[in-house]
Write a structure and sequence with these properties.
Strand content: 25-35%
Helix content: 10-25%
Largest sheet: 11 strands, mixed
Structural class: alpha+beta
Mean pLDDT: 91
């Protein structure tokens, strides 16, 4: 009897092990995760039986993004600071994209990475058309989205039912968002419609990855500040033509050569702003501290420090106060101040942008030439090493990032 029980237990155990192994999920293959180029047409037609079109990024903006958008309303307006009535320009806008009918698609390669925190819940995609960059920001409510959509990954997005708009004049794929926080700082200027983040599950459903990530396919435009300002106006005019040009330059991936931090920042807006030296102080409380991004007391606007070349050309380096490197000293800065900044020169790579959130400055022609910025994706040791500077040009003496330490006296 005991032998019979042992045999029964053995058979039962074997069956359980077999059942468990048969329920184990199949390992994912590349074809389970990525769409191959040869299969893309059939897949999109299956998703869009009425037909589809893949727009270039500039063609997409020209087709679906209007100046006023379709959320401008007397009863439920955009935020007050969005409209320049003198020139008919909107810094904030939202245009909805048709939900039904022909499939509306864009495709591009992810050029940003959010590990360092400078592109939190956002990304930029790039498309190379006739050898030139076209770029578009995407606002998406996904934490660590670049763990899934890695830098160099080409994606195709079904845009039906989404929206396209501008936030502080920067075009982006988005959804409509209404801010009704009447207790916010400057609430009278901020309550209203503006672009908002696409829900994460919606973005994943609408997005397919084409092939495996390939960082080598990303295009960088390497140039000096002097060359950059022959291609774009440092201080564009407040008219539709110049604003259209500015918007199409947004998101461009650049490598700026022969630049250094001059240890200064812009205090204030427009022609009344003062360019002043950064100082030594705790970044929690000192807005002019000599680090990348002191605290804004959680207001959240981007912080900037000024880059300069040997000819005196300047551009802002923009960082988020929530970036991992926000409280790191600028290259050449330390607990004694910013006198060493001029000794560290090199390149800075990042996303080009033209940020302006107050239309009254357009209306009064109050631009000061500091609206352009480059936003690095990281620094050495934190994400993509986009800032590479060297002491007096010596490649054997690279800048080594150092964090502000209140105990370092």
């Amino acid at each position: 009897m005991k032998t019979s029980k042992n045999i029964l237990y053995f058979l039962l155990s074997t069956f359980v092990l077999f059942a468990m192994s048969s329920c184990e999920p199949k390992a994912l293959t590349e074809d389970d995760v990525f769409v191959q180029e040869a299969d893309l047409d059939a897949l999109l037609y299956a998703e869009s039986p009425e037909g589809y079109k893949i727009f270039t990024l500039e063609e997409f903006l020209d087709t679906f993004m209007t100046e006023a958008g379709n959320f401008a309303s007397d009863t439920c307006p955009y935020r007050e600071r969005s409209y320049d009535s003198k020139h008919g320009l909107y810094l904030y806008s939202v245009d909805t994209i048709p939900t039904y009918g022909r499939g509306i698609y864009i495709r591009g390669r992810v050029t940003t990475d959010d590990y360092a925190g400078n592109f939190y819940k956002s990304m930029v995609i790039q498309q190379v058309v006739n050898g030139k960059q076209q770029n578009l920001r995407i606002s998406v409510d996904l934490g660590s989205s670049h763990g899934l959509y890695q830098m160099g990954q080409e994606i195709v997005i079904r845009c039906n039912g989404l929206a396209v708009g501008r936030y502080a004049n920067q075009p982006q794929l988005c959804v409509p968002s209404y801010n009704n926080n009447i207790y916010a700082m400057n609430a009278s200027q901020k309550v209203g419609w503006c672009p908002g983040r696409i829900q994460g599950s919606v973005f994943r459903r609408n997005t397919k990855m084409i092939g495996a990530p390939d960082r080598s396919a990303i295009k960088y435009d390497t140039l000096t500040l002097a060359t950059l300002y022959t291609e774009i106006k440092k201080k564009p005019s407040s008219n539709a033509t110049d604003m259209a040009t500015v918007r199409k330059m947004d998101g461009r991936l650049v490598v700026l050569k022969d630049v250094h931090f001059n240890g200064k920042y812009k205090d204030g807006d427009g022609t009344k702003a003062k360019i002043v030296d950064c100082v030594v102080g705790h970044p929690d409380t000192v807005s002019g501290a000599n680090v990348f991004a002191p605290s804004t007391q959680n207001i959240g606007y981007p912080q900037s420090r000024i880059l300069e070349d040997q000819g005196g050309n300047t551009i802002m380096c923009s960082s988020s106060e929530y970036a991992k490197f926000a409280y790191y000293y600028l290259p050449g800065a330390d607990k004694t101040g910013v006198t060493g900044c001029a000794n560290f020169e090199g390149t800075i790579t990042g996303v080009l942008g033209w940020y302006l959130d107050k239309a009254e400055r357009l209306a009064s022609d109050d631009l000061d030439g500091y609206e352009w910025s480059v936003t690095p994706r990281g620094i050495p040791g934190f994400g993509i090493a986009d800032i590479n500077m060297y002491y007096q040009g010596d490649k054997d003496s690279p800048w080594v990032p150092k964090e502000y330490d209140p105990n370092d006296k």
